Protein backbone atom coordinates (compact mmCIF):
# COMPACT_ATOMS: atom_id res chain seq x y z
CA UNK A 1 0.00 0.00 0.00
CA UNK A 2 0.97 3.65 -0.17
CA UNK A 3 3.78 4.70 2.09
CA UNK A 4 3.19 8.30 3.06
CA UNK A 5 5.78 10.63 1.60
CA UNK A 6 6.61 13.80 3.53
CA UNK A 7 4.55 15.70 0.97
CA UNK A 8 1.44 13.56 1.32
CA UNK A 9 1.65 13.87 5.11
CA UNK A 10 1.55 17.62 4.69
CA UNK A 11 -1.44 17.60 2.33
CA UNK A 12 -3.43 14.42 2.82
CA UNK A 13 -6.16 15.70 0.49
CA UNK A 14 -3.83 15.59 -2.53
CA UNK A 15 -1.92 12.31 -2.64
CA UNK A 16 1.31 12.42 -4.58
CA UNK A 17 0.75 10.92 -8.02
CA UNK A 18 4.05 9.05 -7.91
CA UNK A 19 2.99 7.16 -4.81
CA UNK A 20 -0.29 6.25 -6.50
CA UNK A 21 1.63 5.21 -9.62
CA UNK A 22 3.85 2.87 -7.60
CA UNK A 23 0.84 1.50 -5.76
CA UNK A 24 -0.77 0.17 -8.98
CA UNK A 25 -2.10 -3.38 -9.04
CA UNK A 26 0.26 -5.73 -10.91
CA UNK A 27 -0.99 -9.12 -9.71
CA UNK A 28 -3.93 -10.53 -11.73
CA UNK A 29 -5.27 -12.41 -8.69
CA UNK A 30 -5.32 -9.21 -6.66
CA UNK A 31 -7.17 -7.44 -9.48
CA UNK A 32 -9.81 -10.17 -9.61
CA UNK A 33 -10.26 -10.00 -5.84
CA UNK A 34 -10.62 -6.21 -6.01
CA UNK A 35 -13.57 -6.54 -8.41
CA UNK A 36 -15.25 -9.40 -6.55
CA UNK A 37 -14.05 -12.10 -8.93
CA UNK A 38 -11.51 -13.69 -6.59
CA UNK A 39 -12.95 -17.16 -7.20
CA UNK A 40 -12.65 -16.87 -10.97
CA UNK A 41 -9.02 -17.92 -11.35
CA UNK A 42 -10.12 -19.57 -14.60
CA UNK A 43 -10.12 -16.04 -16.08
CA UNK A 44 -6.35 -15.75 -15.64
CA UNK A 45 -4.12 -17.35 -18.27
CA UNK A 46 -0.97 -19.21 -17.19
CA UNK A 47 1.19 -16.21 -18.14
CA UNK A 48 0.92 -12.61 -19.29
CA UNK A 49 2.38 -13.16 -22.78
CA UNK A 50 5.38 -11.03 -21.87
CA UNK A 51 3.40 -7.89 -21.00
CA UNK A 52 2.77 -7.42 -17.29
CA UNK A 53 -0.57 -6.44 -15.83
CA UNK A 54 -0.50 -2.91 -14.50
CA UNK A 55 -3.47 -0.75 -13.44
CA UNK A 56 -3.85 2.10 -10.93
CA UNK A 57 -6.28 1.45 -8.09
CA UNK A 58 -8.39 4.50 -8.93
CA UNK A 59 -9.14 3.02 -12.34
CA UNK A 60 -9.99 -0.36 -10.80
CA UNK A 61 -12.49 1.44 -8.55
CA UNK A 62 -14.47 2.38 -11.69
CA UNK A 63 -14.91 -1.26 -12.73
CA UNK A 64 -18.24 -3.01 -12.12
CA UNK A 65 -18.09 -5.70 -9.49
CA UNK A 66 -18.70 -9.39 -10.24
CA UNK A 67 -18.62 -8.77 -13.99
CA UNK A 68 -15.94 -10.56 -16.01
CA UNK A 69 -17.10 -8.65 -19.11
CA UNK A 70 -16.59 -5.22 -17.54
CA UNK A 71 -15.21 -2.96 -20.30
CA UNK A 72 -12.49 -1.47 -18.08
CA UNK A 73 -11.38 -4.84 -16.73
CA UNK A 74 -11.10 -6.26 -20.25
CA UNK A 75 -8.72 -3.45 -21.24
CA UNK A 76 -6.15 -4.50 -18.65
CA UNK A 77 -6.62 -8.19 -17.72
CA UNK A 78 -4.29 -10.61 -19.58
CA UNK A 79 -6.17 -13.17 -21.67
CA UNK A 80 -5.21 -16.54 -23.07
CA UNK A 81 -6.06 -15.29 -26.58
CA UNK A 82 -2.96 -13.08 -26.51
CA UNK A 83 -0.95 -16.17 -27.49
CA UNK A 84 -2.96 -16.74 -30.67
CA UNK A 85 -0.94 -16.38 -33.83
CA UNK A 86 -3.09 -14.61 -36.37
CA UNK A 87 -2.05 -13.85 -39.95
CA UNK A 88 -1.41 -10.14 -40.46
CA UNK A 89 -0.68 -9.44 -36.78
CA UNK A 90 3.03 -8.72 -36.46
CA UNK A 91 5.47 -7.35 -33.93
CA UNK A 92 5.74 -3.92 -35.64
CA UNK A 93 2.40 -3.10 -37.17
CA UNK A 94 3.06 0.53 -38.05
CA UNK A 95 6.66 0.08 -39.16
CA UNK A 96 8.05 2.39 -36.51
CA UNK A 97 10.19 -0.01 -34.52
CA UNK A 98 13.43 1.62 -35.58
CA UNK A 99 12.41 5.18 -34.78
CA UNK A 100 10.39 4.28 -31.70
CA UNK A 101 13.27 2.51 -30.06
CA UNK A 102 15.83 5.03 -31.25
CA UNK A 103 15.98 8.61 -30.10
CA UNK A 104 12.20 8.92 -30.34
CA UNK A 105 11.80 11.74 -32.85
CA UNK A 106 9.19 11.03 -35.55
CA UNK A 107 8.54 13.49 -38.33
CA UNK A 108 6.13 11.78 -40.69
CA UNK A 109 3.37 14.37 -41.14
CA UNK A 110 3.68 17.91 -42.44
CA UNK A 111 4.26 20.55 -39.78
CA UNK A 112 4.12 18.13 -36.85
CA UNK A 113 6.93 16.36 -35.05
CA UNK A 114 6.12 13.63 -32.57
CA UNK A 115 8.40 12.79 -29.68
CA UNK A 116 8.33 9.46 -27.92
CA UNK A 117 8.97 11.40 -24.75
CA UNK A 118 8.88 8.40 -22.42
CA UNK A 119 8.25 4.69 -22.68
CA UNK A 120 6.45 4.43 -19.35
CA UNK A 121 2.72 4.19 -18.75
CA UNK A 122 0.70 4.03 -15.54
CA UNK A 123 -1.51 1.38 -17.12
CA UNK A 124 -0.73 -1.48 -19.47
CA UNK A 125 -3.48 -1.64 -22.09
CA UNK A 126 -3.64 -5.12 -23.57
CA UNK A 127 -4.39 -3.87 -27.11
CA UNK A 128 -1.40 -1.52 -27.25
CA UNK A 129 1.44 -1.75 -29.80
CA UNK A 130 3.70 -0.82 -26.92
CA UNK A 131 3.51 -4.37 -25.54
CA UNK A 132 6.37 -5.29 -27.89
CA UNK A 133 8.65 -2.31 -27.37
CA UNK A 134 11.34 -2.85 -24.81
CA UNK A 135 12.04 0.83 -24.39
CA UNK A 136 13.19 2.43 -21.19
CA UNK A 137 11.83 5.20 -19.04
CA UNK A 138 13.10 8.12 -21.05
CA UNK A 139 13.56 8.32 -24.77
CA UNK A 140 13.44 11.78 -26.31
CA UNK A 141 13.77 13.22 -22.82
CA UNK A 142 17.20 11.66 -22.34
CA UNK A 143 20.14 14.06 -22.25
CA UNK A 144 17.98 17.11 -21.47
CA UNK A 145 16.06 16.64 -24.76
CA UNK A 146 19.21 17.65 -26.60
CA UNK A 147 18.65 15.65 -29.81
CA UNK A 148 14.99 16.52 -30.07
CA UNK A 149 15.62 20.23 -29.55
CA UNK A 150 18.39 20.22 -32.15
CA UNK A 151 16.11 18.60 -34.73
CA UNK A 152 13.28 21.01 -33.98
CA UNK A 153 15.53 24.00 -34.26
CA UNK A 154 16.87 22.82 -37.60
CA UNK A 155 13.39 22.54 -39.17
CA UNK A 156 11.32 25.75 -39.22
CA UNK A 157 8.50 23.90 -41.01
CA UNK A 158 7.54 22.27 -37.69
CA UNK A 159 4.84 24.37 -36.03
CA UNK A 160 3.44 21.73 -33.69
CA UNK A 161 5.31 19.55 -31.25
CA UNK A 162 3.51 16.42 -30.10
CA UNK A 163 4.59 14.65 -26.93
CA UNK A 164 3.61 11.01 -27.04
CA UNK A 165 4.90 7.71 -25.75
CA UNK A 166 4.35 5.70 -23.69
CA UNK A 167 2.91 8.47 -21.60
CA UNK A 168 4.75 11.82 -21.63
CA UNK A 169 3.14 12.79 -18.33
CA UNK A 170 5.03 9.92 -16.71
CA UNK A 171 7.92 12.40 -16.76
CA UNK A 172 8.46 14.78 -13.88
CA UNK A 173 7.12 18.28 -14.47
CA UNK A 174 10.70 19.56 -14.11
CA UNK A 175 11.66 17.42 -17.14
CA UNK A 176 8.81 18.93 -19.15
CA UNK A 177 10.00 22.37 -18.08
CA UNK A 178 13.48 21.55 -19.43
CA UNK A 179 11.85 20.97 -22.81
CA UNK A 180 9.73 24.11 -22.78
CA UNK A 181 12.73 26.25 -21.90
CA UNK A 182 14.43 24.92 -25.02
CA UNK A 183 11.32 25.65 -27.08
CA UNK A 184 11.36 29.27 -26.02
CA UNK A 185 14.20 29.81 -28.51
CA UNK A 186 12.09 28.50 -31.40
CA UNK A 187 9.26 30.82 -32.41
CA UNK A 188 8.26 28.51 -35.29
CA UNK A 189 6.91 25.99 -32.74
CA UNK A 190 3.53 27.52 -31.94
CA UNK A 191 1.61 24.56 -30.55
CA UNK A 192 2.32 21.91 -27.98
CA UNK A 193 0.18 18.80 -28.04
CA UNK A 194 0.31 16.15 -25.33
CA UNK A 195 -1.04 12.65 -25.95
CA UNK A 196 -1.73 11.18 -22.54
CA UNK A 197 -3.90 8.62 -20.78
CA UNK A 198 -2.88 9.80 -17.32
CA UNK A 199 -5.70 12.33 -16.74
CA UNK A 200 -8.05 9.35 -17.20
CA UNK A 201 -6.22 6.54 -15.41
CA UNK A 202 -4.43 8.62 -12.74
CA UNK A 203 -6.05 12.08 -12.65
CA UNK A 204 -3.95 13.00 -9.59
CA UNK A 205 -1.10 13.56 -12.09
CA UNK A 206 -2.77 16.87 -13.00
CA UNK A 207 -1.40 18.51 -9.90
CA UNK A 208 -0.67 22.16 -9.09
CA UNK A 209 2.93 22.07 -10.30
CA UNK A 210 1.94 20.61 -13.65
CA UNK A 211 -0.90 23.11 -14.13
CA UNK A 212 1.35 26.00 -13.26
CA UNK A 213 3.84 24.86 -15.88
CA UNK A 214 1.14 24.32 -18.51
CA UNK A 215 -0.50 27.68 -17.91
CA UNK A 216 2.86 29.44 -18.16
CA UNK A 217 3.65 28.24 -21.69
CA UNK A 218 3.53 30.91 -24.41
CA UNK A 219 2.13 28.29 -26.81
CA UNK A 220 -1.25 26.99 -27.83
CA UNK A 221 -1.89 23.82 -25.86
CA UNK A 222 -3.80 20.72 -26.88
CA UNK A 223 -4.19 17.71 -24.61
CA UNK A 224 -5.38 14.56 -26.35
CA UNK A 225 -6.75 12.10 -23.81
CA UNK A 226 -7.31 8.42 -24.34
CA UNK A 227 -10.54 6.89 -23.06
CA UNK A 228 -12.44 4.04 -24.70
CA UNK A 229 -15.57 3.81 -22.56
CA UNK A 230 -17.84 6.25 -20.70
CA UNK A 231 -17.21 4.39 -17.43
CA UNK A 232 -13.60 5.59 -17.47
CA UNK A 233 -14.86 9.06 -16.50
CA UNK A 234 -15.63 9.85 -12.88
CA UNK A 235 -15.56 12.94 -10.68
CA UNK A 236 -11.77 12.81 -10.40
CA UNK A 237 -11.37 12.72 -14.18
CA UNK A 238 -13.90 15.54 -14.58
CA UNK A 239 -11.91 17.64 -12.13
CA UNK A 240 -8.63 16.94 -13.95
CA UNK A 241 -10.25 17.94 -17.26
CA UNK A 242 -11.63 21.15 -15.76
CA UNK A 243 -8.20 22.02 -14.40
CA UNK A 244 -6.53 21.36 -17.76
CA UNK A 245 -9.04 23.61 -19.51
CA UNK A 246 -8.49 26.22 -16.83
CA UNK A 247 -4.79 26.18 -17.71
CA UNK A 248 -5.68 26.98 -21.32
CA UNK A 249 -5.64 23.55 -22.97
CA UNK A 250 -8.04 22.41 -25.67
CA UNK A 251 -9.14 18.87 -24.78
CA UNK A 252 -9.63 16.11 -27.33
CA UNK A 253 -9.91 12.36 -26.96
CA UNK A 254 -8.75 9.43 -29.00
CA UNK A 255 -10.17 5.95 -28.58
CA UNK A 256 -9.40 2.56 -30.02
CA UNK A 257 -12.30 0.55 -31.42
CA UNK A 258 -12.22 -2.67 -29.36
CA UNK A 259 -14.33 -5.79 -29.71
CA UNK A 260 -16.21 -6.59 -26.53
CA UNK A 261 -15.39 -3.17 -25.05
CA UNK A 262 -16.87 -0.41 -27.20
CA UNK A 263 -18.02 -1.88 -30.53
CA UNK A 264 -21.64 -0.93 -30.02
CA UNK A 265 -23.45 2.22 -31.10
CA UNK A 266 -24.92 2.81 -27.61
CA UNK A 267 -21.48 2.48 -26.03
CA UNK A 268 -19.85 4.88 -28.48
CA UNK A 269 -22.74 7.33 -28.10
CA UNK A 270 -22.40 7.27 -24.32
CA UNK A 271 -18.64 7.74 -24.62
CA UNK A 272 -19.00 10.87 -26.77
CA UNK A 273 -21.72 12.30 -24.53
CA UNK A 274 -19.75 11.57 -21.38
CA UNK A 275 -16.50 13.06 -22.61
CA UNK A 276 -18.29 16.19 -23.78
CA UNK A 277 -19.82 16.54 -20.33
CA UNK A 278 -16.19 16.68 -19.12
CA UNK A 279 -15.36 19.34 -21.72
CA UNK A 280 -13.63 16.95 -24.13
CA UNK A 281 -14.32 16.58 -27.86
CA UNK A 282 -13.91 13.27 -29.70
CA UNK A 283 -10.99 13.30 -32.13
CA UNK A 284 -9.99 9.90 -33.50
CA UNK A 285 -11.52 6.45 -33.25
CA UNK A 286 -8.61 4.24 -34.22
CA UNK A 287 -8.72 0.90 -35.87
CA UNK A 288 -6.37 -1.30 -33.88
CA UNK A 289 -2.71 -1.44 -34.85
CA UNK A 290 -2.37 -5.06 -35.95
CA UNK A 291 0.20 -6.22 -33.43
CA UNK A 292 0.66 -9.77 -32.24
CA UNK A 293 -1.48 -10.62 -29.21
CA UNK A 294 -4.33 -8.20 -29.95
CA UNK A 295 -6.34 -9.93 -32.71
CA UNK A 296 -9.20 -10.83 -30.37
CA UNK A 297 -9.93 -7.10 -29.97
CA UNK A 298 -10.14 -6.35 -33.68
CA UNK A 299 -13.32 -5.01 -35.28
CA UNK A 300 -13.55 -5.40 -39.06
CA UNK A 301 -13.75 -2.31 -41.28
CA UNK A 302 -17.29 -3.11 -42.47
CA UNK A 303 -18.57 -3.28 -38.89
CA UNK A 304 -16.59 -0.16 -37.97
CA UNK A 305 -18.08 1.83 -40.84
CA UNK A 306 -21.60 0.68 -39.97
CA UNK A 307 -21.02 1.80 -36.37
CA UNK A 308 -19.88 5.22 -37.53
CA UNK A 309 -22.91 5.61 -39.77
CA UNK A 310 -25.16 4.74 -36.85
CA UNK A 311 -23.32 7.25 -34.65
CA UNK A 312 -23.73 9.99 -37.25
CA UNK A 313 -27.46 9.32 -37.27
CA UNK A 314 -27.59 9.91 -33.51
CA UNK A 315 -25.13 12.59 -32.54
CA UNK A 316 -24.27 16.12 -33.55
CA UNK A 317 -21.37 16.10 -35.99
CA UNK A 318 -18.94 17.45 -33.41
CA UNK A 319 -19.48 14.40 -31.21
CA UNK A 320 -18.65 11.90 -33.97
CA UNK A 321 -14.98 10.84 -33.97
CA UNK A 322 -12.99 10.33 -37.17
CA UNK A 323 -12.52 6.63 -37.89
CA UNK A 324 -8.91 6.11 -38.94
CA UNK A 325 -6.08 3.66 -39.28
CA UNK A 326 -2.37 4.34 -39.16
CA UNK A 327 -0.50 3.03 -42.18
CA UNK A 328 3.28 3.21 -42.39
CA UNK A 329 4.39 5.60 -45.12
CA UNK A 330 1.12 7.59 -45.32
CA UNK A 331 1.18 11.37 -44.96
CA UNK A 332 -1.67 11.33 -42.43
CA UNK A 333 -3.85 8.90 -40.55
CA UNK A 334 -5.97 7.16 -43.17
CA UNK A 335 -9.73 7.78 -42.94
CA UNK A 336 -11.83 4.63 -43.18
CA UNK A 337 -14.99 4.92 -45.24
CA UNK A 338 -14.33 8.55 -46.23
C1 LIG B 1 -0.52 10.25 -35.29
C2 LIG B 1 0.73 10.99 -35.55
C3 LIG B 1 0.76 12.38 -35.58
C4 LIG B 1 -0.47 13.23 -35.34
O1 LIG B 1 -1.37 13.14 -36.39
P1 LIG B 1 -2.66 14.10 -36.36
O2 LIG B 1 -3.47 13.63 -37.50
O3 LIG B 1 -2.17 15.50 -36.47
O4 LIG B 1 -3.32 13.85 -35.05
C5 LIG B 1 1.94 13.02 -35.87
N1 LIG B 1 3.08 12.32 -36.10
C6 LIG B 1 3.09 10.97 -36.07
C7 LIG B 1 4.37 10.28 -36.35
C8 LIG B 1 1.92 10.26 -35.78
O5 LIG B 1 1.97 8.92 -35.72
S1 LIG C 1 0.72 3.92 -24.77
FE1 LIG C 1 -1.43 4.39 -24.28
S2 LIG C 1 -2.58 2.58 -24.99
FE2 LIG C 1 -0.42 1.98 -24.80
S3 LIG C 1 -0.22 1.09 -22.75
FE3 LIG C 1 0.35 3.28 -22.63
S4 LIG C 1 -1.56 4.29 -22.03
FE4 LIG C 1 -2.14 2.27 -22.80
UniProtKB/TrEMBL annotation:
Its cofactor is [4Fe-4S] cluster; pyridoxal 5'-phosphate. Signal peptide: none annotated. Keywords: 4Fe-4S, Iron, Iron-sulfur, Isomerase, Metal-binding, Pyridoxal phosphate, S-adenosyl-L-methionine. It catalyses: L-lysine = D-beta-lysine. Residues 107-330 form the Radical SAM core domain. It comes from the Bacteria. NCBIfam families: EFP_modif_epmB, KamA family radical SAM protein. Belongs to the radical SAM superfamily. KamA family. This is L-lysine 2,3-aminomutase. It comes from Rhodanobacter caeni. The gene is epmB.
Amino acid sequence: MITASPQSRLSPAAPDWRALWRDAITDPKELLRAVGLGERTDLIPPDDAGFALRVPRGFVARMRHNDPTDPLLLQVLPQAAEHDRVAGFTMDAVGDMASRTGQGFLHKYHGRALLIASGSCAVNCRYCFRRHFPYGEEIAAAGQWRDALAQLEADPSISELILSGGDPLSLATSKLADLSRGLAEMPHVRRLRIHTRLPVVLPERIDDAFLKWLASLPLQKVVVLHANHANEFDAGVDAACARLRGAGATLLNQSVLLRGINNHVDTLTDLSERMFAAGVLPYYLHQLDRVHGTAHFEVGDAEAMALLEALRARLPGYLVPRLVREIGGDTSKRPIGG
